Amino acid sequence: MTLFLICIKIPFAIAPVAQWIRAFGCGPKGRVFESRQGRHDEERMSAPFFMQMQKPQILLTNDDGIQSPGLWAAAEALSAIGFVTVAAPREQSSGMGRSLPGTSDGIIRPETLTVHGQAWTVYAVGGSPAQAVLHAILEIMPQPPDLVVSGINYGENIGTGVTISGTVGAAMEAAALGHRAMAVSLETHRQYHQSYSRDVDFSAAAHFAAYFARILLNKKFPEEVQVLKVEIPSDAAHSTGWEMARLTRQRYYEALRPVRASWDVPVTVDYREAMQFENEPEDTDAYVLRKKRRVAVTPLSLDLTARVDMAALGRLMRK
After folding, report:
1. CATH 3.40.190.10 matches 56-318
2. Global pTM value
3. Could you give the 3-state DSSP secondary structure of residue 113?
4. Average pLDDT in the 215-233 region?
């Protein structure tokens, strides 16, 4: 049975890992957690460490991959709220929605990354964003998360495209397991969508990730709100306002016909922005983000049932 030292669960207190290990006794004599199938040896838990475990446990993931600067901007901001466990796809996994591919290897590799001079231990998962969430909750974390945050994504996730988004898909998987969840995306130019570009400034997006994380942790939401989708304008500042917004019914991105000589030539379906704002309602996520230049906050539900009169629809179908 695989053993996990609790010292590899990162509190993100912006202190070197070695210092944190010394502070809380996570060395050979420290607290040892077995895998989720095993038992937890409560007798060996030190009082200071037990108090730390009472802080909110936050699972952070994304669809851009474990190396994404957007992920680390969120990790630093969320570390002020509680302990952050980072588990994300090993590879770039944009556009995977909530998929659980049978071809994923499921291998979990603890890695050490240096961010702003500090060494952080994270978990690279061989799978989709949704699978990263599953492995983190079922295998990696010693206790269920109080909140799951997905992001910060390179590029906005608007309207009908939310079912394509791996960022939103990861949050939906967490919600399906009964956890509070949030998907955070930053409006960026298309050229950055699958990049790890350092030209993108995530500071304002990280601020709002922490802002709404606190709200999710401290307030009781209606049962229908299972995921909070947050879209941040590219020019946002900490003082930028936010509005509740519903999903636009327009297709935000339009798929383009591939250009190739024959079908046996490898190709991917490209896309371009397709929004038309002339008659777009002012309360949609697209309008609030693009036209009002405010943070668009959309409550999502896993219930995809059409809001219609079922009896009337049944009568129509039987005519």
Report:
1. no
2. 0.81
3. strand
4. 96
